[in-house]
Amino acid sequence: MRPLRAPLASGRSEGFCQADRRARMSAVSSLFERLGGDVALQAAVASFYEKVMGDPSLEPFFANVSMDIQIKKMIGFMRMAMGGPHDYTGRDLRTAHRRLVAQGLGEAHFDAIVDILEATFREMEIEEDLIAQAIELVASTHGDVLCLEQA
């Protein structure tokens, strides 16, 4: 016989109708929406770049870059990548990072960026499963950002 309630992490139970509704909402809503939409994304990107610019290993890659423009580009890219409304027309990741790779951008820098983004989301108290999804999305760009050979 099928149980009438699905257990929650908190130990409480949730009716199947509620669990099914949550699952459907999760499947229908974009990661962008589930993270909090534009307000959350703008706050995250601003906080993220503040941390990036405070990291002596990353800051040199942004010398002579208008951070206002960079933040707008990143917001546009993340909207697109996370399934939100967008008008992103920027360069692809390989083209955008080729010069930086030539200047020494590598694995340690990519890892630092991922760590900073993860820390930023945690400070914003984003749910862990959403952080994991966002980090998985970022991790999927690894080869393009670092201009690695494609298999």
Record the SSE blueprint.
Blueprint: E1 5-7, E2 13-15, H1 16-28, H2 31-35, H3 37-53, H4 67-81, H5 93-102, H6 107-123, H7 128-139, H8 142-145
Antiparallel strand pairs: 1-2
Helix pairs in contact: 3-4, 3-6, 6-7
Short synopsis of the structure:
With 151 residues, the protein is mainly α. It has eight helices and two strands; from the N terminus they run E-E-H-H-H-H-H-H-H-H. The chain has a two-stranded antiparallel ribbon.
CATH topology: Globin-like
Helix content: 55-70%
Q: Rg, please?
A: 18 Å
What's the N-to-C terminus distance? 49 Å
CATH superfamily: Globins
Explain the overall architecture:
The chain is built from eight helices and two strands. The chain is mostly helical and 151 residues long. It has one domain (31-145): Globin-like (Orthogonal Bundle), CATH 1.10.490.10. Strands 1-2 form a two-stranded antiparallel sheet. The longest helix is centred in the first third of the chain and has 17 residues, at 37-53. The radius of gyration is 18 Å and the shape is globular. The N and C termini lie far apart (49 Å). Mean pLDDT is 85; it is low at 1-26.
Keyphrases for this structure?
151 residues; mainly alpha; Globin-like; two-stranded antiparallel sheet; disordered N terminus
